[in-house]
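pasting for the record
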Amino acid sequence: MSKNDILRKLSSRKFWALLAALATSVLTASGAGDNTVLHVTGVIGAVGACVAYMLAEGIADSARSTNGDKTE
């Protein structure tokens, strides 16, 4: 798996939804309270959104600098 494949997967909303669903299932099965499940799912969603945004901006900046566009 190449670096680009890993970056593409980390920026995928489906990947982060999968992690949130997995965490919810595991926490529920292990007997965690509803409040704990809600907090963990919220953190995963927030981290996923931040990672996706940062990777998308990095890719856009890289493409812009490759094309010679100096505007920000």
